[in-house]
Each structure stands twice: as structure tokens, then as C-alpha cells.
Input
Amino acid sequence: MDEILITGLGVISCLGNGVDAFWRGMNEAASAPRRVPDPNAHMDIPMMYGVPEAEVPRAEREPDGQPLGLGSRFALEVSRQAIASAELDGTDPQRIAVVIGTGMGDAGLHEEWRVSGYPERDGWSPTFCVASAVGSLAGAEGPNISVSNACAASGFAISIAADLIRSGEADVVVTGGAEAYSRVALGCFNRLGAVDSRRCRPFDAHREGTVFGEGAAALVLESEEHARRRGAPRAYARLAGAGWSCDAHHTTAIEPEGEQVVRAMRQALRESGVDPSEVGCVVPHGTGTLINDTVESRALSEVLGPVAAKHPLYSLKSLIGHTGGAAGALAALAAVLIVHRGTVPPNVPRDVADPECEVSLPERAVPFDGSAAVVNAYAFGGNNVSLVLQEAGS
Amino acid sequence: MSESGTHITGLGLALPGVAEAADLVSSGERADAPPPDPAERIGRKGLRYKDRATQLALVAARDALCDAGLITPDRERCAAGGSTAVVASSNLGNLDSVCTIAGDIAEKSVAAISPMNLPNASSNVVASSVAIRFGLRGPNLMLCNGVASGLDAVRWGASLISAGRAERALVVGVETGNGVTARLTGVPEDDQLDGAVALVLESSTAARLRGATSMASLGEGVRSTSVAGCVGSLLPYDASASGGTHARGTRSGGAVEAGPGVWFVPERFDLSAPLPGTEGLERHDVTRTFGRASGALGVLQCAAAVSWFASGEATAALVTSGDDGCDGVAGMMLGAPRGAR
Output
């Protein structure tokens, strides 16, 4: 089977704009949530890891004049970066597809309109507008898919992108995820008592819930054969496998035994032909919510065996918060950089390690010692997806 | 049943004025029928705190799974749930929940919103609720893909099967008509679909092993930038002979051997518009009967094709969603089961 290579990257988050800023931020391992700039955020903890104001992409409109919300603007910015780094010029537009995951899309735009009044030229900006905007930017005339599986959306999107290439429906796919501030999302988590009042603290004994973050990540995927034929400048990594499952248990709670979480990881490893002992790093879903981190820790032990506690985890959400539908893509991009650069950056230190979570979270950079990185993304409704990334050419 | 490919083996409908599949293609304007009542159809248990889109989806999903012989009304947990995927499509599904919550937070505070309503704000609430009720633990996808979303969902259900990620897929298309969706789309409430349609897709092998009956086979799918391009990619058409041109589309899926006898056209498509290659095809716009169907359209059209086959009217059907002013046009061929006329 032809390998699926990642030949372009783009990212924006609270760490700044661009891949270099992201990697630098990963290595500095310091960040803090801020108050959201919404006077109508009538909730106890109106905090999140927002994209710095100076880095917010400029306002844009669709060709028909419809304004684009922040979700779409983030997606456009990172897609521009990814397409530029892949040097995609000259690819047949009918063979380029777009698959974008987002939970709330441009909901923030409507939330604002509901309070401040609708503009003279308004219209409904659905979830789909994010993928649509990226399709226009890329001039992509192949399939255009908007996946909205809540917090696992972009993990599924990346896997679907690979399937599109394998099935012959596209040569190149611009994929990833985007999520911006939404009053509804943050309000709902406040109402559920699922927001940490201090910061995002996955696997910490005193964690109180998650803290949202804004961000987007884009990856350009193409087959090894196509990349070689067009002379792609580089391959950052390859997507070796993916596994999907559904808890079918509860609309908001994870299934406590983690049976389907384990199934997704094992399926991804099996598809990639990677033995658990070869896993050099895991970028977990790890949100900071009490039971999720515990269940994922146990699932990792079950899948990776007795040495699970020694496999370094890179807890991205402790640095950039929980980026909702974009979380899977940002985690995958982090894993790509880890594989490509051969280093697992330092984790944001925990105050007190949770003894229920037997995981290794190195607070200093360590070499990436293995052949594969695993990425997990989970969502409300029990949607689980795991990805396996390896060095290109391995 | 053909030796390969993907087949429709179950059909479930929660539509106004539709008691059985045959009603789908009955001619005439939209019946002045009451909206489907989920509690009346499947009982109140499990419907509390669910939004209308989810309730309608549960009705259609249950009937499709029953129709396929995967569950019974008395035993709803699907024994084959581990290998059964769910792909749901809706563009407007939980919009009323999201907008109501947004307004309540802005005007009051989060204390004004009910925690029980919060799962309904999650974009994948339809797909995950269906999985939870019927124990479907295969891949679970929620598509919000604009006008072509329903047909994309059918294609993705088939793709999950051909990629080996599931043996079968339950594909659900659902939309609701209410004041919020009318305000945001500009479409009057009484011209919006308030209903759901579900299909069970199955590989021929999986269907044969459990003795399931094919209602239709899925043929080639295509995505294009225009209706002409989409139709031209799917129908045998000599462009040079008539001086026309068809844009090439992105193709996928298997082949349907027979030429179509019916064309389920895009929403509010001009039924008399000339289009090379479609001469002699009976045209049918399901949205004139059920209202604008948005993300449910493609699933509804496929269900109508099944109904058409059952009546013996055609051996193949062409289905298209989206028009030239949209982000894209999706098309698919469906074939009648072997033995049908």
C-alpha cells in the first residue's frame, strides 16, 4: 500500500502563529489562560487559552460578501501556511480535497449578532463554512468534507483524508481542524462544572476540569508516489494508521472501562503494523476532566503493556488548552513535529501527579526513542479516534 | 444480490404523511399531514431532554435497523453493533438548541440554562445518540456538509465499509423546521423538511452471511462543480455529438449496469430544464413534497429510489444534490436489486 505522507503544516494557537512559534512554545512549556474578550460571557470562569490579539487573522469575507467568523479565519490562515510549505502549485485542482473538523464552526459570529444585532448583509454561517472557505482558498475541486464530531472532529478528519487518498478519490488533501471562542461551548462547560479555575491540568491530582483553547492546525496529505512525482520539498512524517470506535455509552461521559478507547488504539497500531513496544511518544486526549484522564491512563497501560508508564506522554492541552474540534489536528501536528525533530518537548509541570494516572510526563525534553507516535482524540458521545505517525521513509 | 459492492438492506422513515416507503414517490404537492410524533412512534422512553432532530433520527434509525433485521422493536440493542457504523448528516439539526443557549447566557447567565439540555449543543449529538440507543460501536461520524451533505453521508457510509472500518453503516439524514432555522436560512418554516430518513448499508458479503435482502445497490458517486458536470460524469453521453461539454468530476464507488429510468433532481431544480443526456428520464424533486431538506436531502433521495425500485418502475436511478450556485454538486447511481424489473 502506498504510504500517506504529510508534506505541509500550518498552525495557530495561544502560542502564536506558525510552526516555528508553535515548536518554540512547546519547548518553552509556559502559558496561561486569559479572560475571554466577551462582555456577555456571564459565567463563573470566562477563561481560555485564546489566540493573542495581535496574531488574530484579519477579517475576511466569502466571495458572496458573507463575513467569515473566527473559526474560518483561523482555518484559512493555517491552510495558507500548509499549502505554502508543501509548495502545492501546479497540482490538478480536481484532485485536491479538503477535510476539516470543527465543533462550533463560526457559531461565535452568530452569538455576537444575537446580542449586537444582525448586520445589513447577513446569512447563516453553518459549520460547513469552515471547510468551504478552505476549499475556495485551495482552489480544491475534489471532495470537500466538514466533519463535526465534537472534540474528536479533526482526528476523524485526518483519518478520512488518508482514506480519500487510498481510495483514489484525491491525490492531495488539505486537512485539519479549527475552533474559536464560543459563548455556548464555554457556557455549557461552566454549567456542567467542568472548567478548571486555574489552568488546564491533565493528569494532575487536583485537576478540576478542562480549560478551552483557540486554535487551528492544517496538514497537507498526499501519497508517497504523488509526492515523489511532483517533487514535494519535504515530508515531515507519514500517517501510518488510524483506528475508530464509539463507546455507545453516554452523551457526555466516557465509558469507564475504556473498552472502545482501547479498541481504537489497537486498531490504529494494527493498521500501521507497529508493535506497542515501538511507541516512542503518546499525545493523549488528556483534557483535565477527572474521569477521562484516569480512563485514558488505564487504557494506555492495557494497550502498551507494563512499560506504559515509561512511554513519554506529551500533554499538549496543559500548554494550549482544549481546542475542541481542532484538538485532534493540533495533537497530530505536535506529534508530527516530535517525530520529525526527534525530540519530545518538556511538559508543563504538574503540581501533584495523580497516582490513579500511571503515566510519564517528562518535564525536560527527552529524545524521541521509538518508531511511532500515537495521537488520541475523544469526544462527547463516545467518539474515539487514534492515529499513528511515523518518520517518513521509515 | 450482486457478488460485490454495497447494498441498502434497511429503510426507516420519519416523515410527515408517510406511513410506508411506497408513499415516498406518490405524486402531488406536499400533503397537509401532521409532523411525525416520535413518542407515538417509538414511545416516550429515552426521548426526554433530546432535541427534535435527535428524536426524529432515533425513529428513523430504529425502523431502518428493524427493517434490516438487525434489531426488533422489543430488543433494540444491536447484536452486530461492534461492526456497525453510524454516519449522520444534518446542517440545521441542533441550531435551535445552540441559539437558545447562546441567547440565555447573554441575556441572563449560564445559571439560566438546563444542564440536561447541554448535550444537545454538541454538534454530534444526533450520531452519538443513535449509537448509544442501539449499541452501535463502530465508527461514528457527523457530517454538516452543506447541500451535498446527505449524499456525502451515503458515500461515507459506503467508504467506511469498503475501507474495512465497518461491515455495515446506518446512514441518517435529519432536519427540523422551526423559527430559528427559518430566520437563519430565510426559508419559511412550512417549506422546510421536518423529518428524518435512515438507510442501512451493508457489504454484499455481510448481507449474504446473515441472509439480508438487498433493496438497492450503490453505484458510482461523483462530485463536481456543476449539475451538468455531475450528470455528465455518471451518464453515458456523447458530448461531441451534441456540441456540449461536461466538466470532469471526482468519481468513486462501483458500477450500476443499467441506465437510469428516473432522476432525483437537486432541490427546486427546473424540472423542464434541458440537460444533455437526461432526455427520457423521469424527473422527481422530493423537496416539492417534503420541503427543503438541506442535509437530509441525499438520504431522502436514496430512500425514494428504493421506493421507486420496489414499485418496479426503474432498474436504476440517478440522484443529484446541489446546483450550480452551491459549493459543489454530488451525484450517485443506484441500481435495483437483481430480479427487479
The first strand of chain B starts at residue 6 and ends at 14. The first helix of chain B runs from residue 38 to 42. Chain B has two domains: 6-209, 216-335. The radius of gyration of chain B is 19 Å.
